[in-house]
UniProtKB/TrEMBL annotation:
Pathway this chain belongs to: Carbohydrate degradation
Reactions catalysed according to its record: aldehydo-D-ribose 5-phosphate = D-ribulose 5-phosphate
Species lineage: Eukaryota, Viridiplantae, Streptophyta, Embryophyta, Tracheophyta
InterPro entries: Ribose-5P_isomerase, Ribose5P_isomerase_type_A
Originating organism: Gossypium darwinii
GO molecular function: ribose-5-phosphate isomerase activity
Taxonomy, superkingdom: Eukaryota
BP GO terms, sorted: pentose-phosphate shunt, non-oxidative branch
Full protein name: Ribose-5-phosphate isomerase
SUPFAM superfamilies referenced in this protein's UniProt entry, alphabetically: D-ribose-5-phosphate isomerase (RpiA), lid domain
Pfam families per the UniProt record, alphabetical: Rib_5-P_isom_A
């Protein structure tokens, strides 16, 4: 399912009266995946092959780890997707 997020009013997947457009004239689409994603890398690769797609926000090439400091000390949060490129 694909949605455009309007800055005012309501826009349907085709943009309606208020499609969100960049200053360069590119349409911005929000994509909602309604089923589990088997491979983020494959989604990113598929999007990159679509004619007219300038950029996407699928992060699949970076492993994620955060060190969180709080009053009770440090904690390490691993968020390493197994379907990332080079995943573990």
């Amino acid at each position: 399912m694909v949605w455009r997020r309007p800055s005012i009013g309501h826009a349907d997947p085709l943009g309606g009266d208020f499609p969100l457009v960049t200053s360069e004239g590119h349409n911005i689409l929000d994509v909602i995946f309604t089923s589990p994603i088997a491979s983020l890398a494959e989604v990113a690769e598929s999007l990159e092959k679509v004619n007219g797609v300038v950029e996407h926000g699928v992060v699949s090439k970076f492993l994620c780890k955060a060190i969180v400091a709080s009053e009770s000390g440090l904690s390490i949060v691993d968020n390493i997707p197994t379907n990332a490129v080079g995943g573990v």
